[in-house]
Amino acid sequence: MQLGKINLNLLSALYYLLQEQSVTRAAEKMHLSQSAMSKHLAKLREVFGDPLLVRVQGQLQATPKGIELKAQVAPLLDSVENLLHQQAFEPSLCQRTFTIATSDYVSEHLLPKVLGGIYQQAPQLNIELCNWDHTTNRLLHSGEVDLGMTLPPRDSTELHATTLGTDHLVCLMHQQHPYLSIAQPSMSDYCRYPHAIITTGADKNSHIDRHLSQQGLQRQIQFRASSYPATVQILSETRFILTLPAKIAKQLLKQRPLAMVALPFEVSPFDYSLIWHHRNHHDPAHTWFRQQIHQAMT
To answer: What stretch of H or E contains 243?
Structure first.
């Protein structure tokens, strides 16, 4: 038998014909005319190469083939029904593993409270946190990372993003840094002192360096780290300048005796977003998970 010879209407007709063993009653169940059901029966007989129902003492009875099919068609239709009408996602039963890529600052200071609320609703959920770096975009496409939290993607037809907030860049440095004694620091002053940069998260440095390059200037980057805590510790011990998002800088000021100042040149604010691949866009569990994060962080 070929699948092209049968459809869901014929399978439903087969079910009701074998269940009712009556063309009239089967037609009533499917809200069809008796002649339409008779045509369905004729087609089914052709498809299965068997009468399926035969008249015995004035009543229709299933043939051995019909009896065999009757035991199979009901669970088949149930499976189709479940396929077409998926049960609503139930967080308390979810055992999925979600991998989130972001900076160590977000992982340490922002996500714990958010994820705590999620775990209350989905106690069997598994969550893995990793740093966003130059490989993460590829991992989102391959499915090894489920969500990213960083700058929105550029020119991607396969990634979706929803904005979590807006921020701007500032400078963070030691409270005794000589840069702070300059009344109106210039771009040259900004470049005169050594810099530290954070290498995780989306690239927030290249557009700064391009802007400086257009003015014939270049930063001297002497320290690179993937960790905010390590970099903040370095700032406490050196005269480096760290350029970073203002919201992160304000939180770090609570931990160390540092100073935050504006950049000596204008840079446009930027959005930071929750990012996922199109393959997960309609997945019920993934949709619920990212909605919980978005609601908690906006």
So the answer is: strand 241-245
pLDDT digits (tens, 9 = 90+) for 38-92: 999 999 999 889 999 999 888 899 999 989 998 888 888 878 777 766 667 899 9
What is the spatial distance between Cα 150 and Cα 202, in angstroms, rounded to a whole number? 6
CA–CA–CA angle 181, 243, 256 (5° rounding): 70
Q: Which domains does the chain have, with CATH numbers?
A: 3-84 (1.10.10.10), 91-165+272-297 (3.40.190.10), 169-268 (3.40.190.10)
| Token duo for residue 41 | 């029966």
The reported pLDDT for the residue numbered 117 is: 94
Q: DSSP E strands: which ranges in 7-81?
A: 53-56, 59-62
Q: Which residue has the tokens 């340490």?
A: 108
Element (H, E) at 100: strand 97-102
In the 8-state DSSP scheme, what is residue 201?
Answer: S
Find out whether 293 and 107 touch, Cβ atoms under 8 Å.
no
Give the residue among 168, 134, 170 at the shortest CA–CA distance from 242.
170
